[in-house]
Design goal:
By secondary structure, this protein is mostly helical. It has one domain. It has four helices and no strands. It is globular.
Length: 67
């Protein structure tokens, strides 16, 4: 049996794991409190990538989630 939890966006799940994001970006990412409450998680993730000097593309989500 598989369990599926719907959130605003896939990026919400990525924001919930700041350690993996930090490793992926090679940049310290601050913990996001209550990522489920963020209405535009993709925009917030794009801002985090910009701070690390990178650009976020939705195709990266699979690689990040795999980590």
């Amino acid at each position: 049996m598989k369990v599926c939890v719907v959130v605003h966006e896939l990026e919400t799940w990525l924001l919930a794991d700041e350690n993996t994001l930090s490793q992926y970006l090679k940049h310290n990412v601050k913990k996001v409190t209550n990522p489920e409450e963020i209405c535009d998680a993709k925009k917030q993730l794009e801002q985090i990538f910009r701070k690390a000097g990178k650009t976020y593309f939705t195709t990266m989500a699979e690689k990040i989630a795999a980590k």
